[in-house]
Predict the structure of Inosine/uridine-preferring nucleoside hydrolase domain-containing protein.
Amino acid sequence: MSDATAARPKKIIIDTDPGIDDAMAIFLALRSPEVELIGLTTIYGNVYTTLATRNALHLLEVAGRTDILVAVKFHEFIASLFVFQKGMKLRVANFVNGADGLGNQNFPPLPFLIEQANLYPGKVTVVALGPLTNIALALQQDPAFSKIIGQIVLLGGAFGVNGHVHPAAETNVTDIVFTSGADILVVGVNVTHQVVLTDDHRQKLARSDGKFAQYLCKILEAYFSFHLGIYIHDPTALLAAVDPSLITYTERVVRVQTCGITRGLTILYNKQKSLMFGEVTEWTAKPKVKVAVTADAPAILNLVMERLMDS
């Protein structure tokens, strides 16, 4: 790691939909001295939000880090709390305190992402490993979020390669986020496909005494039953947030196709010069984002192995 990244731990929130890859990234964050993990936010993606929240809580329990907050949209969290109490009727004193508990003033809830960004302006990095709904909602609820958040590192997009959802698209993309003006680093599948964890790596993890390594070896069986090697998407994005020197990137305007058979396509405007004749288009005056181009796969794999084995 460079001196800059080693100087002071980054305050990181992981927006996640755990997820085997997500589990590896969360454990990696907990084993990285460059990271101060201040919370997890959960979102629908690999699983429904309620199960994503349960998985996130479980992973922190496995890690012995139940001090770390897991934030989820309020109504979904309440549903998850009472999932095992079927038939129970919840009784509240809204006839005394008002429907919102505070005299029917209907104060809007302050989402965790906005709260933390305001608490540490310019200091919080959000590592978004799933669909960008939570980020988009934060941007819509607080237009200043794009300026006070330090950086958003997102796993998403498929630049020049087929996506996961269909040939044109990868799932974790939202035009609102890409054009928000926040400091954004996009790590697409075109880059994460450069980082492959092989069965030899898995066997090495299995032979280690690392608690996280042993846990991951069990859940990785599902992946390796189908593949000789696996792309480690989420850990690559996490490490790109920790140490940007592990990747190379270009800065360009990116838009996301929102309709038709190419819905979800990430389109990178790759021209160096301005649009001709001063024409105003959907690309005019849009902010640039950083788009990862290559990854130092050996260095990333070495860090993943070293930190998970020493756990």
